[in-house]
Amino acid sequence: MQQRFFPVVLLALMIMGSTACNNDNKPKEDPASTTNSALAPPAAMDYTVVKVYPHDTSSYTEGLLLHNNELFESTGREGFSKFAKIDIATGKPVKEQFIDKSIFGEGITVFDNKIYQLTYRSNKVFVYDLSTFKKLAEYPWNGEGWALTHDGKSLIASNGSSNLQYLDPATLKMQKIVGVTDNYGPVNNINELEYVDGFIYANQFETNYILKINPESGRVVARADMKDIFANGGKVFNEAQLPDPQEDVLNGIAYDSAKGSFLVTGKQWPYLFEVKFK
């Protein structure tokens, strides 16, 4: 990822060709160049910051989720990739599992008491026991892996394109593909995913946006611009706080069903923000 997030020049939503959820180039689909006037643009999704927690700046965040009131995070980059259970009060791991140093880890989800973990270009999906973190299985994966969630029946994965891939959790065989679109056409760089109350929330990599997607149609129905989240959380953004300002972009969405709020962060950010979308 080669995008400076705050407060320098932000990439436009309609960028053609970009990098991926890491520092390598990834292929893209070209979005339509003109607006389809028959389709309304996504609604603006306002938010308020409820609370701010510390976040470990060594965590190159690829996935974030809450399960049974416990926070889990997966991180990327070869040699540093892991998934961990996080103490939200400190931002530090209380239990963690590193993967092979040659592999770039990507998004995770918890399904049926198992942790599923994508990998970037290693063409593998790993499955672990939720309690012990013991590796249970390994599946082949065709192409790049970016982000992962589930709807209670299927795993839902992204690969950096405009497509969401629905997978059988038992076999990881493809069930269907849903293309994500807005009034301009296909929406690329679909990243970190969270399924909430019949909608999919996603980071759009290399932008400030969190997208709310109708999973049946693939339409982006609402969009939150998070460019001012530091200021809205009462924090002064300082690039010196980021280990790699060029790449430390917005990435990470977890839903707290008990509070009706979301936890949002970025790669190697110093903060984890609890927000409520309006």
TrEMBL record:
Signal peptide start-end: 1-22
SUPFAM superfamilies: YVTN repeat-like/Quinoprotein amine dehydrogenase
Keyword Transferase assigned: yes
Superkingdom of source: Bacteria
Presence of the UniProt keyword Transferase in the record: yes
PROSITE patterns assigned to the protein according to its UniProt record, in alphabetical order: PROKAR_LIPOPROTEIN (PS51257)
InterPro entries: QCT, Quino_amine_DH_bsu, WD40/YVTN_repeat-like_dom_sf
Pfam families, A to Z: Glu_cyclase_2 (PF05096)
A GO MF term: glutaminyl-peptide cyclotransferase activity
Gene3D superfamilies: YVTN repeat-like/Quinoprotein amine dehydrogenase (2.130.10.10)
Keyword tags: Signal, Transferase
Full protein name: Glutaminyl-peptide cyclotransferase
